[in-house]
Amino acid sequence: MTTSSDHAIRSALTTALQGQAKRVGEQAPSVRGADWRLATVTAVGAGTITADGLVWRCLSSYVSPTIGDVAVVSQSSSGNLIALNRLATSATPLYMSVYRYKPANTDRSSTTTFTDDPDLTCLLDANAVYRVEFWLHYAAIDLVSSSPAGRFKTMWSVPAGWTGNRSAVGADQGTVLSATSSGGQGRWGVHNFSTACTYGDRDSSTNQACAIEEGIVTTTTAGSVTLQWAQAVSNAASTRLAQGSTLCVTRIG
After folding, report:
1. How far is CA 115 from CA 96, 227, 236, in A?
2. Closest to 141 (Cα-Cα) out of 133, 131, 154, 150
3. Which residue in 118, 135, 166, 216 has the fewest CB atoms around it within 10 Å?
4. Number of H helices and number of E strands within the chain?
5. What is the pTM of this model?
6. Is pLDDT larger for residue 231 or for residue 187?
7. Parallel, antiparallel, or unpaired: how do β-strands 81-86 and 54-58 relate?
């Protein structure tokens, strides 16, 4: 004779067996087959990540996996596990360049105080590696009564906890270029981001010269990389950072 208690026991046992079979099937490649899914990284090894309690081999394109990444992972029907890459979660995805440019000239006069450029700035993520490039078109006077005047100087503002250096390529700070020639001596130094770099010019508030600054920025905290600039010697004649100057930021790690 079957009682209601027997029915309850059989029902509970059936549910438990079905649940166990489902869990086993979810992990058994022969049952589950090939698929892909999203998983959160809980540990990082040598070329591997751990997610969903399993160890996944990273593709070579999955650079610098980090705990907390939401990764795209795939399992073959034979049981091989691979991690394809992380989902993009930042304003600067890996290997995709972000550009900023100056839509209009910015002129500054009678100031040697470094100030953020209003256009050449970009947000950087925490715990990331970036290649940063500034292409600068500037104009400045150089001499008044044989004494230095105006000129153009730069430095970078970067997030706290950064590491890295920047290079500075352009006219040497003691050089006055001809208004009709691009010739002259150059500078090729590598500096800290906060080191002031002064450039030579064409002794004009409108005739432009060019400087290129680039470097690798490694961050620990989020924040912006920004070009800061001013006159090297205070003068009422304007120093100009011109329309068309650009910033290119590429996250590489």
Report:
1. 28, 8, 17
2. 150
3. 118
4. 2, 20
5. 0.67
6. 231
7. parallel
Pick the CATH number of 97-251 from 2.40.50, 1.10.1660, 2.60.120, 3.30.70: 2.60.120
Q: What pLDDT is recorded for position 85?
A: 87
Q: Could you tell me where the beta strands, DSSP code E, fall in the chain? A: 35-44, 48-51, 54-58, 70-75, 81-86, 97-101, 106-108, 115-124, 129-140, 143-144, 147-148, 152-157, 166-171, 186-187, 190-191, 197-199, 204-218, 223-230, 239-241, 246-251
18: left (phi over 0), alpha (psi -120 to 50) or beta: alpha
> Average pLDDT, stretch 29-39?
72
Of the given ranges (49-53, 60-64, 81-85, 245-249), which has the lowest mean pLDDT? 60-64
- Fold match flag (33-87 vs 97-251): no
